[in-house]
User: What shape does this take?
Amino acid sequence: MAIVDRLYIHFPFCRHLCNYCDFYKKVRVDSSETLGFHKYLENSVEPHNQLLNENGLTMTDMASVFIGGGTPSLWGKEGAEYLDDFFQKLNVKLRKDCEFTVEVNPGSWKEEDLMAWRKLGANRFSLGIQSFNQTFIKHLDRVHSLEDVVDTLKFFNERELNFSVDFMLGLPFSERDNRDVLEELKEVLKYNPNHFSLYILTTKENYVHHNHLPTEEWIEKEYMDVSNFLKQHGYLHYEVSNFAKPGFESTHNLAYWESDSVAAFGPSATGFLSSSRTRYKWRPARAEFEIEILTEKEFKLEQLYMKFRTNRGLNFDDFFSEAERPIIKNLTAEWQKTGLLESVGDGLYRLTSKGYLSMDGLLNQIFARTKSL
Ligand SMILES: C[S@@+](CC[C@H](N)C(=O)[O-])C[C@H]1O[C@@H](n2cnc3c(N)ncnc32)[C@H](O)[C@@H]1O
Ligand code: SF4
Assistant: This one.
């Protein structure tokens, strides 16, 4: 029987909602809501087992677990204890080298909570800081202060914890107020994170600071400055939005980019079963999911998009017909000349940091000239 060894769990509560965030989450008013969430997870086990059975799959010892949200650090000690039980209900254990990530908000954690997660097996904490400047933290309406960020980073260092930092570019007022991202990053680097996720703020039309967003040029400059800076400091730019010290790349996230299977639980969480190209998305209100089965062509297209995101490189021959290969060859030669693409040997190509910025445009150039996908 084929196996699924990666697990995502979505904790859908926060202490307070940031003004830009589009994740599925709500403010937790009282503890009865956590009980409702636990019930939701319990009710998910049976339909999920059935889905796996129908697809000839079984969950085995986990290679990675990712607790995302919302704000999982708010789930706290109770969450760690609950999950210990939930893993048994799912009949899964953690592999000895399991990469186990918990997302942490700098204003929503307690020492005893993080220690309970450690005890359960968490060995990677992903801290949402977004900015190291109090003014920008305030513009985003975050629940914490810069002081809370510093306290959390100090705590991680004292306990020698392995952690990643979420950092955002393209923030409101950044161009007007001349935000200095490198100054901010210099401060963050003092705490020596093993990993950075670097997100460009995406917003909706009615975003409260819609009229104060920076220009494309400003954002591109921020992105290239940060990428160069982190590379100079020993981080690999291993995916469009991710940097790691060698050996600290997130294997869980790499599974998504490799279109591998990842089981998922929690309201609005999405799982994927690679062997049957099945995507399932949990409904928010009830422990039921909607299924989408990708056609072979859709799956291939998705694989191309995903592979283009990482520094592992891709072989265009896997995606295009014999007749189309000369067209691709011309395009890739052009992109190499302009520093957007590089060869990694064995027929594999990958985008450079500059190329990542133009990823969608480059893919569109391919699609305009080919028919395979
Ligand atoms: C679930 S949150 C991380 C944990 C915790 N909820 C927090 O915010 O501290 C995941 C990350 O997604 C990023 N993010 C959220 N909304 C975003 C948006 N609209 N555009 C870009 N990145 C966003 C932030 O960097 C955030 O840290
Ligand atoms: S704390 Fe995190 S999940 Fe919650 S609203 Fe803010 S960015 Fe979104």
Q: What stands out?
A: Residues 14, 17-18, 21, 23, 25, 69-71, 105, 128 surround iron/sulfur cluster (ligand 2) (CB under 6 Å). The mean pLDDT is 96.
